[in-house]
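Annex B. Sample input.
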Amino acid sequence: MPRVIAWWLVLATLAGPLHAQRRGAVGAGTTTASSNECVLSRRALDQPCARVAPTLTQAAASSSAWSIAASAILPGSGQVILSTDRALAYIAVEAFAWTAYLNHSIEYRRGRDGYRDLASRVARATYSVVRPHGDFEYYERMTHYPEAGRYDLSAGGGLEPEIDSTTYNGAVWLLARRTYWADPSMPPDTTSPEWERAVAFYRSRAYDQLYRWSWSQTPVEYSEFKGLIRESNDANRRALQDLGVIIANHVLSTVDAYITVRLRRVTEANGFALRGSIPFSLFLRH
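Annex B, continued. Sample output.
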């Protein structure tokens, strides 16, 4: 289906058959009448006739301008105003893309609520009664570290960071030591700038008791949690892609309407009529 729609758009804007033809009998009659009037005028006044090129009426110009704005607001509507059958292609793409976006957005929210609830009920339940939602990075870090680790190993006094580097907090402290200490295994004086910078780094990234988690005793639930994270991320990525299609459809419909208006003005000013159509019969055969 998306491939068919894409071909419709290509044919509509680039390869649609254009039929340039002279105006019909009515236009010809008008030209003849004008010529006769010109002859009479020359005989009576002996003055040369001025050739007046046909121009768009004010109503037609206003309708043309509105068709461009309408296409930007709702793809296909400008093509309806301009009476082109390309409107169907843009409307179909718009409806398809919005439907897909809504479905993927629902999937994303369902997955997000699912992994948040699972983490709260299983991994965080034993550490805090109050368990506020974390940001996206918080849950992503859970997929890489089964345990958050303790925030402060000391019972009182100064901060003593987690040293188990298999936990998230421990990994943060290891990174802080490697970044600010000359030797990560040899702690400097606690009053030194090196210590203070490492501790400040740790405080800004480590999680305290309120956000502590552990999946070590629940491997089945942990696997389910990772699956929900992946599904939610995939749905969110597809929703963003759908938005890209919607934006592109609006832009393409607007450009299509603008080009159609410009071509009609040029061709009508030179006595031609421009027509564009999509050969739907070719698609129906397949």
